[in-house]
Structure formats: structure tokens, C-alpha cells
């Protein structure tokens, strides 16, 4: 399928590795010029070199920390200077450390609310006006399957990420007439460093091996395996495409059928 987004400009947050990096690569392969963003300049630079070596969409990067009070200003300036504007915004952030509800101190709640919710919203607010002017835009936010089925021992994530659901749905209704789509993409168990971290934590809690925990979790997924970053990124690229112009205000799962809710 021709996604018809060649020449578009995309900002992908938290794209030094994992799902964000995968999405940036997938968009670039469709001819999109991408701006990578994260906290590891070395990885971002390496990622951009690899993308540019493929010769389709071009890549550049900006160092920015979601926890920095100047994050929105830094990234907005980079969008103007390095992309010359924006068509596609992929909101993405790292997840919080595992833990129960008893581990949710006020300080931890406030810290992660900033990096996982408020910075996402304020950055989007800063970039939406330009999309409205041009009459075209895509806003895709990577959340978690925990918003439809809470994940054990991820209390902070289960608490904070659902805030993005209400926000995204509201925004979708407000900007649909401007040619802008707004969607959430919900990853299940995708094979990334984050998944290894969570499996390791589960193994340590139960005094088991990482291999046993991983095998058991994969058996509970109807697809019988963990997802690949490339599969997840392909779904993201479609949601950012021209053919997906009538898909908005939705939550799309990419989880191998793992979530049992309707």
C-alpha cells in the first residue's frame, strides 16, 4: 500500500531506541523526513546515520528530556529549524518503574505525570496550530495496553496513561474538521529493552529465571509470541498515513490478542 506521506515531516519523541526508534525508521522508509528526540545524543546520532544511509526520508535529531521544564520550547524550536514545520507528531515516552499502588508516593506521581502526560499535552498544543493552518496533520500517541486492561505491578502506568485516553479522544473531536487525526496506539508485549526490564523484575520477584518468565508470558498471548518492533511500527506508520484519514479518536491495539477486554 502506498501510504502517500512521502515528503511529510514528523517528530518522534523518545526515539533513541525501542518503539520510538522503530516508528521513526518505518516513517523514514515511507519517505517521511523525521526528527528524532531523546536523551542519548550518541544513539540518536547513530540512528540518524543509519536512516540517512537508506536514502529515502531524511533524519535529524534533537537532545531533549521530557522532564526538562524547557522541553516544549527546545523541541518546538528544533521542529522549525530542522524540519521547517510539522505534519506528523508521534508522542511517546518511557514507562515508569514497576510497582504496586503502595509504591505510588506523591513525588513519584508528580514526576511521572509531567513526563508521561503534561509534557505530551503541552507540546501537542504548541504544534497543533501549524497543522490547522495547512489543513492536514497526524497526532499519534503511544500509550499502553494497560489503559484497557491494567497490568499487574505497573500501578503508576495504569494510573497515568489513561489520562491520555480522555485527552486524545477530546482533541480528536476538536480538530477533525481541520484535517487532523488523533489516535492512540496501544502496545502489548513488544520485544524491547523495556519488556526485558519488566520480565526481569517479575523473575526477581518470584525467584525464577528470566527465560521461564518470558516463556510463560508468551504462552498466555494468543499469538504465542512477543511482538516485533517492526510490526508495531508498521501499524503506527499506517495511522500516520493519508489512507488512514478517516481513522480518528480511536485506540488501536497491537498486542497479539493479549487483552481480554472487548
From TrEMBL:
Organism classification: Bacteria, Pseudomonadati, Pseudomonadota, Alphaproteobacteria, Hyphomicrobiales
The protein's name: 3-oxoacyl-[acyl-carrier protein] reductase
Entry EC no(s): 1.1.1.100
Keywords annotated in UniProt: Oxidoreductase
Record has Kinase as a keyword: no
One Pfam family linked to the record: adh_short_C2
Highest taxon of the lineage: Bacteria
Family: Belongs to the short-chain dehydrogenases/reductases (SDR) family.
GO MF annotation: an example: 3-oxoacyl-[acyl-carrier-protein] reductase (NADPH) activity
Amino acid at each position: 500500500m502506498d501510504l502517500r506521506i512521502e515528503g511529510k515531516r514528523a517528530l518522534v519523541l523518545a526515539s533513541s531506541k525501542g518503539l520510538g526508534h522503530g516508528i521513526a525508521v518505518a516513517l523514514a522508509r515511507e519517505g517521511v523526513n523525521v526528527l528524532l528526540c531523546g536523551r542519548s545524543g550518541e544513539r540518536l546520532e547513530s540512528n540518524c546515520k543509519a536512516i540517512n544511509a537508506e536514502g529515502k526520508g531524511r533524519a535529524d535529531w534533537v537532545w531533549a528530556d521530557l522532564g526538562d521544564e524547557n522541553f516544549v520550547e527546545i523541541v518546538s524550536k528544533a521542529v522549525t529549524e530542522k524540519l521547517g514545520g510539522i505534519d506528523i507528531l508521534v508522542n511517546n515516552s518511557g514507562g515508569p518503574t514497576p510497582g504496586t499502588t503502595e509504591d505510588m508516593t506523591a513525588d513519584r506521581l508528580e514526576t511521572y505525570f509531567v513526563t508521561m502526560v503534561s509534557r505530551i499535552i503541552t507540546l501537542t498544543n504548541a504544534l497543533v496550530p501549524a497543522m490547522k493552518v495547512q489543513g492536514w496533520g497526524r497526532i499519534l500517541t503511544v500509550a499502553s495496553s494497560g489503559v484497557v486492561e491494567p497490568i499487574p505491578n505497573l500501578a503508576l502506568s495504569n494510573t497515568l496513561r489513561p489520562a491520555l485516553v480522555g485527552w486524545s479522544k477530546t482533541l480528536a473531536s476538536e480538530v477533525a474538521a481541520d484535517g487532523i487525526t488523533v489516535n492512540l496506539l496501544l502496545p502489548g508485549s513488544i520485544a524491547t529493552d523495556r519488556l526485558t526490564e519488566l520480565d526481569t523484575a517479575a523473575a526477581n520477584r518470584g525467584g525464577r529465571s528470566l527465560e521461564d518468565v518470558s516463556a510463560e508470558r508468551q504462552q498466555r498471548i494468543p499469538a504465542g509470541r512477543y511482538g516485533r518492533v517492526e510490526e508495531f511500527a508498521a501499524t503506527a506508520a499506517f495511522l500516520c498515513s493519508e489512507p488512514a484519514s478517516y481513522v480518528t479518536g480511536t485506540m488501536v491495539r497491537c498486542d497479539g490478542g493479549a487483552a481480554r477486554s472487548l
